[in-house]
Specification:
- This protein has one domain.
- The longest helix has 17 residues.
- Helices cover 38% and strands 26% of the residues.
- The two termini are 20 Å apart.
- It contains 4 helices and 4 strands, in the order E-H-E-E-H-E-H-H.
Length: 107
């Protein structure tokens, strides 16, 4: 599991970002958050995952790029809408994964 350098954050997550990432890596997150993750299981796609899912020992976290953090599911949906709009504005139609990967390279 990797974390994007230019991560999307919902309101209120800006101050908690480093703490949440540290706790996710230690697998000791007390309160669930929602993650926007690029998953590559044969075909790459953007998924909304609960941190509770990710903290399960058997969850396949290899190959995940965490592109965003949200406090609740509604905030995660808002972030997906924002990313989709930015992707359309960049002229990439619906290729959200390429847009996010491009943002990481452009840093």
């Amino acid at each position: 599991m990797r974390f994007a350098r230019r991560m999307y954050l919902s309101e209120g997550m800006e101050k908690k970002k480093d703490k949440v990432i540290r706790r996710l890596r230690m697998r000791k997150l007390a309160r669930p958050v929602y993650l926007l993750a690029l998953c590559d299981y044969g075909t790459e796609r953007l998924e909304i995952l609960s941190s509770a899912e990710l903290l399960q020992r058997s969850y396949p976290s290899e190959g995940l790029l965490i592109a965003g953090l949200a406090g609740d599911y509604e905030d995660a949906l808002d972030l997906v809408r924002q990313i989709a709009q930015e992707t359309l504005d960049a002229g990439l139609e619906t290729d959200v994964c390429s847009y996010i990967r491009g943002r990481e390279r452009d840093r």
